[in-house]
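Action item from last meeting closed. Structure (100 res):
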C-alpha cells in the first residue's frame, strides 16, 4: 500500500482503556465499515482509523480528515458520510458538518 492521500479519523470514544465518551453511543463505529467500502467504491486512496475521545463529545460523532484538517460534527449515518466524501472528491469541505 502506498501512502494514503487522506487519513480519516473516527472517534471511538476511548478514554484510557474504556470507551466512555459519547461518539460510540451515537454509533460512530458503525461508520467505519461503510466508510471503508465507500472509499473503495469511489477509488479514493484513504485510510480510516478509530481514535480515542477527541474532546468534542457534545458534537459527536466526530470525524476528522487530514491533511485537509476538516473536523466534522454530528456525522450520523451513511448519508452524512456520503455528503462528506462527495465534498472531499470535489476538493472542498462539507460545510453542513464542519466544526466552527
Ligand atoms: S467521545 Fe468523541 S469526542 Fe469525545
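Sequence:
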Amino acid at each position: 500500500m502506498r501512502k494514503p492521500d487522506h487519513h480519516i479519523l473516527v472517534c471511538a470514544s476511548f478514554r484510557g482503556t474504556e470507551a466512555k465518551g459519547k461518539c460510540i453511543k451515537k454509533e460512530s463505529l458503525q461508520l467505519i465499515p461503510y466508510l471503508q467500502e465507500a472509499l473503495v467504491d469511489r477509488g479514493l486512496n484513504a485510510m480510516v482509523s478509530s481514535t480515542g475521545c477527541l474532546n468534542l463529545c457534545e458534537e459527536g460523532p466526530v470525524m476528522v480528515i487530514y491533511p485537509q484538517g476538516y473536523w466534522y460534527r454530528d456525522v450520523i449515518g451513511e448519508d452524512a458520510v456520503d455528503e462528506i466524501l462527495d465534498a472531499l472528491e470535489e476538493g472542498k469541505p462539507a460545510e453542513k458538518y464542519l466544526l466552527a
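Note appended to the action item: The first helix runs from residue 31 to 42.
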